[in-house]
Amino acid sequence: MMSFLSQPSLAMADFRRLGDYIHAELGIKMPDAKRGMVESRLRKRLSVLNISSYEEYCAYLFSSRGQRDELPFFINQVTTNKTDFFRESKQFVFLEKKALPELVAGMPTCDPKKLSIWSAACSRGHEPYSLAMVLSEYAEQQKNIDFRILGTDISTDVLNVAQKAVYTHEEIEPVPMALRKKYLLRSKDRRKNMVRIAPQLRSKVRLLRLNLMNKRYTAVEQMDIIFCRNVMIYFEKDTQHQILHRLLSHLKPGGFLFMGHSEVIQHTEFPLRSIQTTIYQKVG
Fold first, then answer.
1. All residues at 6 or more sequence positions from 31 whose CB lies less than 8 Å from its CB, including other chains
2. What are the residue ranges of helices labelled H in 143-183?
3. Mean of the per-residue pLDDT values for the chain?
4. Beta-bridge partners for 259
5. What is the pTM (predicted TM-score) of this model?
6. Distance between alpha carbon 225 and the CA centroid of its chain, in Å?
7. So what's the pLDDT on residue 233?
8. Which pLDDT score is estimated for 3?
9. Does 271 sit behind a cis peptide bond, omega within 30 degrees of 0 on the bond before it?
10. Which of 5, 156, 229, 273 has its CA 20 to 30 A from that of 50?
11. Number of neighbours of residue 43 by Cβ within 10 angstroms
């Protein structure tokens, strides 16, 4: 096993080769300042594979075998997955008080009225399960509402966590107490600091691996609501525009798009009108 002092370093040439690949395949910008981050995140893969240098790792990753066997692990290591329950809570208030009543009011009379919501770049599941709590509460009050939530991410690691739907007590701190009591199940072993999302919520969420850089999102239906928050900041402007056009092709007219707090759309370039900061509605 390598000691701390003998750990290899990531040469700039190898970093740029990896960075060019990340940018081409994932759309994520990789300036030179991120070399240390990439080196640190890939160090575990060198240890697991018993590879002694990043140069050797690059050779393996870009081989036909590496593209088949190692690529999913590489993607999991280099993608960022910051997430919280009810992150940017004002958006969830708008969803409950404004977006859902407007969407339901505009639907044909039927029983039930069906809502489709997409959590793009859903990470470890905090966002789709937060949405599921809000939608469940709303559906309970309206009595004739059904909904389905799609959660997608490029990382299989975070999707596995979302599928298990098990979280620490620290993670669930942002969840209102009433919702915790209703939708979170404590571990039978009280020594474990864990809870699990209740099955009635898990059944409403479908999880799928999807790369937003794909030219088409063939597994995604037409949506009433799309949450794509704090993702675009990692892409260059041209890539942002391409992804937004693809996202909007899956948003129904009158549907709502929720973006992250640091992401501003020049909505005149898209069929959108700004409702409030970071919230848009599709027109046409």
1. none
2. 156-164, 177-183
3. 90
4. 228
5. 0.82
6. 14
7. 82
8. 41
9. no
10. 156
11. 17
Beta strand 279-282 pairing with 251-259? antiparallel
Spell out where the chain has E strands.
113-120, 145-153, 166-168, 184-186, 194-197, 205-209, 223-228, 251-259, 272-276, 279-282
pLDDT at 182: 96
Where on the phi/psi map is residue 185: left (φ > 0), alpha (ψ -120 to 50), or beta? beta
Q: How many helices and strands, by DSSP H and E, does the chain display?
A: 12, 10
Low-confidence ranges of the chain (pLDDT < 70): 1-6, 81, 267
Q: Tell me the Ramachandran region of residue 50: left when phi exceeds 0, alpha when psi lies from -120 to 50, beta otherwise.
A: left
What is the reported pLDDT for 6? 56
**Amino acid symbol at 18:** L
Q: Which residue has the tokens 């389905």?
A: 148
The rounded distance, in Å, linking the Cα atoms of 204 and 159 is: 15
Q: Which sign does the torsion angle of CA 245, 261, 88, 124 carry? A: positive
What's the pLDDT at 105? 92
Torsion (CA) 167, 170, 175, 180 in degrees, nearest 10:
60
pLDDT at residue number 267: 60
Task: Give Cβ neighbours of residue 33 (< 8 Å, ≥ 6 apart).
Answer: none
Structure token digits, residue 172: 């669930």
Q: Distance (Å, rounded) from C-alpha 154 to C-alpha 26?
A: 9
